[in-house]
């Protein structure tokens, strides 16, 4: 029985190879897409899952009306939450960004970019696998450091690292343990250095990530309210005492900070604050969209499958009729049919696995990950999906076919049912709809990204070479020396320095206040010429200048947003401000000397926040915050200019850290990298969807036209011209396209409007994609079906008039 | 009207060569009703296809209305076919998606007849074959005899010089078959030239002349005298 079944299947497939090709390739692409998205999803979900504390550890974020949500916390919170809330077992403060450091051992320098500063309790929260030494040893002394296995091997080779003295920033440290990070983790540091002293209680500096470990089973909501209570009782109320301001008034004016507890197990994908650790955050929305899109892809290939099988059913009606008269039951027929589909599903699955294995390396490079196909249960799931999809798409036509009345069929009275055609047309419309949606999506996304890339950012990023200053301590001296010497190079037009350059993502936030109005503001420390160097536009007053000695003592420049928020937009010059870096007893006021136009100092997709500029010499500590030295270089001989800077750098500035530089426009481009990737992914998916749809359309057109060849022959006998034959054949397809387009337009408009709403700076919805897409669909349908229809006009009349 | 001389048509497959028409000569006069009979494979359908310009001969001469058409290409054949020949098939070959009226109208559309003229002609034609009351129905809603009458109407609506019928009663019971044959004789009596392929000696008696084919050659020819008797009955 099986042999005969297989024979029929095999010969049928040979005859209808186009159907088979469309079916299998569609399913293959669909399954491959889904598998990749599942692997990606799995990987994103796996963050911190290895951590036995994941359910009890929470990161504290701070939310206030004025400043939104901050991912970092104060030392006061760390200290008081632990001492005053019984459910909080332990707290730890950890620096949120990786730093770069050089380790000196035996006269050899080793560089690492993944240094994390932490309180000693790090391993109680992130119990990495300890390979050598112990976490207890690490706790003993603040001069103890911990190394990852990779870094340890790089420094010590295969010798033991424990107990060795290494020098970092002129200080000696003892290696106390070597660890390995067991899986994707919030921190994947290579070097752990402890803060040199325990934190003092301070409410002002939101510099570190704060983690709290709760007792198992603690009521999170209750802990949260206790935390909020502590902030009010210990921070705000003492401030209000005697001022006559009520708590409500204070809340209205400054906003009372409330905490958010973000669980370690889910923080990667479900973070409320903008930042989720140095390993980065997952884009949950994007994952959902990708999953949805890959499911649509599968849906489209299912539609193809069902459409083709039911349309070609008439060709197999005779086989079914004979089988039925020979005594096969409906059930057996259904099983035969489903078996055929399962075989195709299985083939598609194999191809999909092969395809995924082939494209994973590219995908990994694209998303910057290292995903393997044998990662977790994804393969099992995809086998399940393939099986049930095949079962489903097999069942529909199987039932359709097995319902044929055998005698009618054998007499040749089989005719297409109206209902079947309607369902098929509806499914075709659905495909056009989905394809059209993808087309519109690609076009709208393209427009928005084009807009963002070409947007006036408010600063000059051309020909600006940025060199990272790693080595901390006396940076300003090195900078001044470099400036003095390198300015003489004829290929270097200008030299400046600042704390950070636009798009780096770490905007140093601190309080900015005028009278009793205050809020968290971005800040930047700059050299005299920075405003001119970066071509920032001064709207009122002036920029910094060496001519005013006060500019290194008490001058401040603010942006428009800050001026508006402070309420001094109309007349900012001369107003006396305070910033969070000043000590309470520091009575020197900062005087506004200028207001600059808002510029995108934090990437172009975020709203421009208030920010201020100070000269780097304004505070004693700020001298060492010049992390980014910048050179405006001539466009010719760039390579030579760079090597000139590097030569100087290696000798006079820093011989330990690697010479690390980049062009500002490229660095800034990284801030829209994410969107360009989205665009690429959407484009690839769209092309896949459109190809699968067109293949399906082609096969369906082939079939329906084949079924109408008798009609074509009759028309031709009656004297119809080629045009008169082609038009009716194409007509129904064009009608479906038009209807699908009509349904598509409002849906796509709504969804794309939603997508655009994600952007602070967005385009108005462009209208042209909504005109181009239906036209493009019509053209595609016209050419695909027209091609088949034109062939139909060339048929052999006698064959179709005689034998049906 | 038709003069055929030494017509040859052979079919080749990979292994066998079949001679469908072997040096066949035949002439048909205007107003004649010719029946072609013979066993399966004798070449009668091939002959009909060539006469109907659906197919072309390998060799020989075919004059249609003094025009030599044997070597015409597809396009030239189509234009003569469109203007001069109507077809009636065994399996009716109506288009299921079109109504009776629309089926009959179709050749007029292709012959670029004006819409107002079309309406008159179609209505007249439907009345003539007695199917006017079914004009809005679709082929599948009709009996076989009715469908064949629609097919005849469609074949005649352009007023062709020649009607070719390929076993017009083959799919009909005797009552319906009779109706169709009577319709054809009537049309012939009104002046239409008809050539019909048939298996049925009974049907052949409706025609004015019957030829029998075997192995691609004409083996006998009979003038039918009883035709009028049957009509009288």
UniProtKB/TrEMBL annotation, chain A:
GO terms for cellular component: plasma membrane. InterPro entries: ABC3_permease_C, MacB_PCD, Macrolide_Exporter_MacB. GO terms for molecular function: transmembrane transporter activity. Residues 293-403, 684-796 form the ABC3 transporter permease C-terminal domain. Pfam families: FtsX, MacB_PCD. The keyword Cell membrane applies. The chain crosses the membrane at residues 20-41, 286-308, 337-359, 379-401, 422-446, 681-705, 726-752, 767-790. It is a multi-pass membrane protein. It is found in: Cell membrane. Keywords: Cell membrane, Membrane, Transmembrane, Transmembrane helix. It comes from the Bacteria. Residues 21-229, 437-646 form the MacB-like periplasmic core domain. PANTHER family: ABC-TYPE MACROLIDE FAMILY EXPORT SYSTEM PERMEASE COMPONENT 2, MEMBRANE COMPONENT OF TRANSPORTER-RELATED. This is Putative ABC transport system permease protein.
Automatic annotation (TrEMBL), chain B:
Belongs to the ABC transporter superfamily. Macrolide exporter (TC 3.A.1.122) family. SMART domains: AAA (SM00382). This is Putative ABC transport system ATP-binding protein. Residues 2-232 form the ABC transporter domain. One of its GO terms (cellular component) is membrane protein complex. It comes from the Bacteria. GO terms for molecular function: ATP binding; ATP hydrolysis activity; transmembrane transporter activity. Keywords: ATP-binding, Nucleotide-binding, Transport. The keyword Transport applies. InterPro entries: AAA+_ATPase, ABC_transporter-like_ATP-bd, ABC_transporter-like_CS, ABC_transpr_LolD-like, MacB-like_ATP-bd, P-loop_NTPase. The keyword Membrane does not apply. It comes from Ulvibacter antarcticus.
